[in-house]
Amino acid sequence: MTRIIPRELIKHLEWTPGQTPPAQPIANPIPIVNPVQTSPFSIDDIMNGKTFYDGSMPKALRQAIEYAGSSGIVANMPEFVAAKAKAEKSHAFWQNWYTVLTEENIGIDKKGSFYTRGEPVLVVMHGGGILTPDRIQQAYDEGLISNSAKYRNEEFDALLEGRLLDGTSFPLYRLEDIKDGRSNLPHQFGVVLPYKTAQDTKSGYHQKKPFLENPLVLARTAGSHDYLEAFYEKAKASDGDLGNYHPFSGRDATIPQGRVLFVDSAGGGLFGGSGLGSGGRFVGVAPEAPGARKK
After folding, report:
1. Closest-CA residue to 228 (of 198, 263, 197, 203)
2. Which of 112, 141, 197, 223 has the smallest C-beta neighbourhood within 10 Å, fewest atoms?
3. Residue 100: what are its φ and ψ, rounded to 5°?
4. How many CA within 13 A on the CB side of residue 87?
5. Order of strands across the sheet with 280-285?
6. Which of 255, 237, 248, 244 is nearest to 220 (CA)?
């Protein structure tokens, strides 16, 4: 249905010939959101995916990527949370912790592309970002900073432009764009929020309402908000607590850096406190997954 805006609300924008055109307000540029291609895999496909564990995170991720191939995926946080919400408590997803293909990257928004110019932001990158197996290994070789990979400035700057240095592009959304839920998000996309917003969230256990309304939880689970309450109900501890942990207190965002996320077996919930140097347990989904749509 076409929505008609009442003239009273926009008449101040009208311009009469002979008048000096009104000055345009100066504002931060609005990022262009690339066309979205949704994942060809269903929640059931994720539940039937294959688990790849190794004491070395880059090895586990490499195995999952090789299994998935160019047409498959490695499950990200929103996909995994939705799958856990649907899975029975006897499912393997509820028996152990898992690593997801979602990373959290911090750095400075030099151009003010999303919020205030020169201020730090957090980019929650779903479905693959800077931290490929080779890049994680490189971070090991160069030395982790507080258990995170230290990025080059050009890596983080490109991320804020919706691209990786290998030429891959993806859509980016502000936190406000996905707060109220957004369906049909692709497998690979990013959510940007002010770093202070993430820092100010409690790292630890939450009761239901604070958990479901937590800005960092919403950024981490964007695209699976329809399943978030069901996930909470299944994952919560007996006292109603569910974890959402992060390592941002006191961390210097002027040094661009990042690490991947984990999901605990139950009450630990969403975990960003584990270092990049730990082992990995990823879920790969191959094109031949039951129910996968043919391209």
Report:
1. 263
2. 141
3. -120, 155
4. 24
5. 50-54, 280-285, 73-74
6. 244
What mean pLDDT do residues 36-58 have? 88
The one-letter code for the residue type at 170 is F
d(CA 85, CA 229): 8
CA dist 146 and 275 (Å) reads 8
For the chain, report the end-to-end CA distance as a whole number of angstroms. Answer: 31
Structure tokens at 258: 């990042």
Report the amino acid identity of residue 172. L
CA distance 243 to 233: 12
Range list of β-strands (E), the chain: 50-54, 73-74, 98-109, 119-126, 149-150, 172-174, 189-194, 204-206, 242-245, 257-263, 270-271, 280-285
pTM of the model: 0.85
